[in-house]
Write a structure and sequence with these properties.
The complex is a heterodimer of chains A (239) and B (342). With 239 residues, chain A is an all-alpha fold. Chain A has twelve helices and no strands. Chain B is of the alpha/beta class and 342 residues long. Classes of the chains: A mainly alpha (239), B alpha/beta (342).
Chain lengths: 239, 342
């Protein structure tokens, strides 16, 4: 079971670096992050990377769908899905393998941002505890988004469709819901917005607090989206 | 366990109200190369996708190497090497990487994997392009890479969906030889709409039309079903004019029992060539000889043109009214057909 998953994940992960996608996404994220993070940094006069986590959380809403859009859509378009599925593997192994490859690449992407907290720690007195938990929160968020992106990729043969639908789901969760919160009348709607917003769940972690509810939230989102992706992949048998 | 490797029972696949496959049942035995013939959209690919457990039938079931497609899809997939239509590969991978990946997916690893890769690379003559990117390969080489991945785990059964489409005649010949070679030790089900290919490669032919299985026989038995044609060249005895001879022999041949049509195909100098189509499968050669002699003509040449698979295929897969029209067409173009037959 694990063997097949890892084989699929390995091929996909290497595929990312054989093509341009991984490099483009990592470059754009680092460039944008550099611009938006350092410009106001010196005005704050405070050695913290919480702003970086906030910015990354929003950028991931574009970066993750870009990474996941091709995972199944491209295999469907080119027909390679037929060979992949007719190997002696389970659909679940295909889904998990693809998911692992995507979060592996996202891990690389997050690792590439490490020079930021390192630079900050050289400029001032940085508390590394919240940095560590912040990265954990961001990684969980990225994983949940990757599952959502994979789900979108499972429904279409068109990578662009998968990308835009992925952004359309991830961006509100990562940013819009939270940003609109002050304008929503207090009541049920605010509770829902607060509950589903990614930034509400990563916020505590950027302060160094790990809350099980936040972990459960991200794992549930990922689990649900992967389940839907699995069903979508399986549904071809009956169509 | 018997030597039935593929056993399909009442396979039906509906897409909405349309039946892509309608109650198809057949068996394929060990060591056979079976050609799966049919016009485009007749249900060939659908059948193959069902047999490889890529899609599920609406009704019916199949057993592959003893594994039921419903109960043990993984067992089915493990027994099969599959080449889907249009040979989907990962273009950005090297041939070496691709075969390694497919081997791993088949559960091979380490020295065993290396050995198998080496073997299929030899079998499919991929050595030259082993370190190249798949996207850079010619269609023929891509096809061989597809075959190599289907062979890597030495499956007892190969299912090949149009393995020779889009290849030039030389490439097709190479792939054909390769498949014949493979077929010596394995069971092969291959789909195609190239009839000469089937005649050369396959021991058995299944013909599907509009989702239904319409024939299941050996290629020679199928062609035997068709009507025989005789091409006769005669000349007049000692200076009789070609016209005279032609009229006489046409008349004489027409009077033979069991003859459907007699048609003059060419007249060069004093030589006249006539084509006779038999009404049934009996042998008319002796009668033709005697009739020619009786008409005062000298027989220069007499040969039978076996009904070709194309004709049989058309008879089976085209609706009756259309078949009649196609038959007329066939008469018009039969001079060209003959040349092919030679």
């Amino acid at each position: 079971m694990l063997d097949n998953t890892l084989t699929i994940a390995g091929r996909q992960f290497r595929g990312y670096f054989n093509g341009p996608v991984a490099y483009i996404v990592i470059c754009i994220v680092l460039l944008a992050l550099g611009f938006f993070f350092w410009t106001p940094f010196f005005l704050m006069n405070h050695a913290s990377v919480r702003e970086m986590f906030r910015l990354l959380g929003i950028m991931l809403a574009f970066a993750v769908p870009a990474i996941t859009m091709g995972l199944l859509a491209e295999e469907r378009r080119s027909g390679t899905i037929e060979l992949l599925i007719t190997m002696p593997v389970r659909e679940a192994e295909v889904i998990f393998g693809k998911f692992l490859a995507a979060i592996g690449l996202l891990g690389v992407l997050l690792a590439c941002t490490l020079p930021y907290p390192i630079s900050v720690s050289m400029l001032g007195n940085l508390d590394w505890g919240p940095v560590f938990t912040g990265y954990l929160g961001l990684f969980l968020q990225a994983a949940a988004m990757a599952a959502i992106g994979l789900m979108c990729s499972a429904f279409t043969e068109n990578q662009l469709v998968a990308f835009f639908v992925g952004v359309a789901i991830c961006l509100p969760l990562a940013w819009l819901f939270g940003a609109f919160l002050p304008f929503v009348p207090t009541g049920l709607l605010t509770s829902i917005f607060e509950f589903v917003s990614f930034d509400r769940h990563t916020e505590a972690m950027t302060r160094g607090v790990i809350d099980t509810r936040d972990l459960v939230y991200f794992v549930s989102i990922a689990g649900f989206a992967l389940m839907v992706a699995f069903r979508a992949l399986e549904s071809r048998r009956w169509s | 366990m018997s030597d039935v490797m593929i056993e399909a029972r009442g396979l039906t696949k509906r897409y909405g109200p349309q039946r892509a496959l309608d109650n198809a049942s057949f068996e394929v035995r060990k060591g056979q190369i079976v050609g799966f013939l049919g016009p485009n959209g007749a249900g060939k690919s659908t059948t193959m996708k069902i047999l490889t457990c890529f899609i599920a039938p609406s009704e019916g079931t199949a057993k592959i190497n003893g594994h039921d497609i419903w109960e043990n899809p993984l067992g089915v997939r493990a027994s099969i090497g599959y080449l889907p239509e249009s040979t989907p590969l990962y273009p950005e991978m090297l041939v070496a990487e691709y075969l390694e990946f497919m081997g791993q997916m088949r559960g091979l690893k380490g020295a065993e994997l290396g050995k198998r890769i080496k073997k299929v690379v030899d079998e499919t003559s991929l050595g030259e392009v082993y370190a190249k990117e798949i996207r850079a390969l010619s269609k023929g080489y891509k096809q061989r890479v597809g075959l190599a991945q289907a062979l890597i785990h030495e499956p007892p059964i190969l299912i090949l969906d149009e393995p020779m489409s889009g290849l030039d005649p030389n490439q097709a010949q190479e792939i054909r030889d390769l498949i014949s070679d493979i077929g010596k030790s394995r069971t092969v089900l291959l789909s195609t709409h190239n009839l000469s290919e089937v005649q050369v490669t396959c021991q058995r032919v299944l013909i599907v039309s509009k989702g239904k299985l319409v024939a299941d026989d050996t290629p020679s038995a199928l062609t035997g079903r068709g009507r025989k044609r005789y091409v006769v060249t005669v000349t007049g005895d000692r200076g009789a004019s070609a016209k005279d001879v032609a009229a006489k022999v046409r008349d004489a041949f027409g009077k033979l029992g069991d003859v459907d049509t007699v048609r003059e195909t060419s007249a060069k100098g004093s030589e006249v060539t006539v084509e006779i189509t038999a009404a049934s499968g009996g042998d008319l050669r002796a009668d033709i000889f005697r009739a020619a002699l009786a008409a005062g003509a000298v027989l220069l040449e007499l040969r039978t043109v076996g009904a070709n698979l194309e004709q049989v295929f058309r008879d089976l897969t085209v609706a009756p009214a259309a078949a009649a029209a196609a038959d007329d067409e066939d008469d018009d173009s039969s001079a060209a057909d003959d040349e092919e037959d030679e």
